[in-house]
């Protein structure tokens, strides 16, 4: 009986530890969208809707990309469109490094899947409260070509997160 109590106590301590480690009060919003066949279709927006209540404190906004070894480039171009509750919008074209000069993918992960947490906006103060929508689409082209690559291989998931600033 005493052995069972020790095991249960150890199990409870482990659960409490996992609970505290897994909680991150910095994150206010995070969501991912999986892409079929790890392929991002051209001109297809990946959309995230979120509600803003706090219009005083600055936030850091991130685009999160999970790519695998089939991703053929060392960088990534995306076009973002942030739609405000009042109808205003901000459109940005952004470039991110996805691999170092040797071709090794950046990001975190021990397997062939790497997760990149890419700054979208730093210290962003939302001017009005309400429902916002962020659209993200890739803008990758082959050198010397005008047309966007129809299917960008190797991108498994696209995510968006909002965090409290430090």
List keywords for this structure.
single chain; 166 residues; mainly beta; 13% helix; 47% strand; globular
Secondary structure: elements and pairs:
Layout lengths: L1 H21 L4 E8 L4 E3 L4 E7 L6 E9 L7 E9 L5 E9 L16 E11 L5 E9 L12 E3 L1 E10 L2
Antiparallel strand pairs: 1-10, 2-9, 3-8, 4-7, 4-10, 5-6, 5-8
Written description of the protein model:
With 166 residues, the chain is mostly beta strands. It has one helix at residues 2-22; strands at 27-34, 39-41, 46-52, 59-67, 75-83, 89-97, 114-124, 130-138, 151-153, 155-164.
Q: Gap between N and C termini, in Å? A: 48 Å
Using only CA atoms, what is the Rg? 20 Å
Total strand segments: 10
* Average pLDDT reading: 89
Structural class by SSE content: mainly beta
Brief account:
The chain has one helix at about 1-20; strands at about 25-35, 40, 45-50, 60-65, 75-85, 90-95, 115-125, 130-140, 150-155, 155-165. With about 170 residues, the chain is mostly beta strands.
């Amino acid at each position: 009986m005493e052995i069972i109590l020790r095991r249960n106590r150890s199990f409870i301590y482990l659960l409490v530890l996992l609970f505290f480690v897994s909680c991150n009060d910095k994150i206010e919003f995070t969501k991912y969208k999986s892409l079929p066949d790890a392929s991002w279709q051209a001109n297809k927006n990946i959309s995230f809707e979120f509600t803003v209540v706090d219009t005083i404190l600055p936030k850091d906004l991130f685009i999160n990309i999970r790519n695998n070894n089939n991703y053929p480039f060392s960088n990534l171009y995306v076009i973002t469109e942030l739609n405000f509750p009042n109808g205003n919008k901000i459109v940005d074209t952004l470039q991110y490094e996805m691999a170092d000069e040797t071709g090794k993918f950046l990001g975190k992960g021990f397997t062939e899947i790497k997760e990149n947490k890419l700054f979208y906006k730093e210290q962003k103060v939302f001017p009005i409260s309400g429902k916002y929508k962020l659209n993200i689409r890739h803008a990758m082209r082959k050198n010397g070509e005008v047309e966007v690559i129809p299917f960008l291989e190797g991108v498994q998931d696209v995510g968006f997160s909002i965090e409290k600033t430090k």
